[in-house]
Amino acid sequence: MKTSCIAHPPNEPLIIIRQWQLDFCGGDRIAAALLSFFEYWHNIKLEQSKKAQEANKIAEMHGDCPTQDTSLYQWHNEKQLEEGTLIFKKTRIGRALKVLEEKKALTITRNPNPRYHFDKTRYFLYHPEVCNGWLESEYLMLQKCRMVAKNGARQDKKKARQDGNGALQDNFGAAIPETTTKTTSETTKEED
Q1: Mean pLDDT by 10 residues, the chain (192 residues)
Q2: Which ranges of 103-175 does DSSP label H, i.e. alpha helix?
Q3: Residues 6+ apart with CB under 8 A from 85
Q4: pTM, 2 dp
Q5: H-run or E-run covering 23
Q6: CB neighbour class for 129 (10 Å; exposed up to 12, middle 13-18, buried from 19)
Q7: Nearest residue to 123 (alpha-carbon basis) of 105, 110, 134
């Protein structure tokens, strides 16, 4: 792991928003922050699920019923979502959750255990396969389009810096001498 030149306080909240997350969410920074937040907790749930499966297996070997939750459902209240995204508030978070749900990256439901139907806590199921599918198909195309646009902009800038005869000019309109690799008689003539 990389270290920092700053001695950050331990267990300080941190949110990383990647460019692909912004693109996936259509530029919605709050939805992108939530996407990152749910990815983080999904990774934790994956690890917990493995350990829960092992514990259930041991319980069954001893004739007990499995008691550990192996699902990948996350549950977060409004305050936790606000703290997890650091700067965004409840009303805006609600709209961003709808964006993620519409994009099928997230399923929002009540407690999936029918025994607790009275529980009004929202449960979230993150779908990394949707994000991975988007990254493999649409994001690569988006990156290629950006490169083409960037290269086109460079060419346009270069053309704008040429005078009427095709010679390059600097930012102040002065001609930039053309460089060449050709050897001329001036550079190869030996003195007697």
Answers
A1: 80 89 95 96 92 85 83 89 85 93 95 80 94 89 78 61 59 58 57 50
A2: 128-134, 140-160
A3: 15, 30, 33, 34, 37, 93
A4: 0.67
A5: helix 19-24
A6: exposed
A7: 110
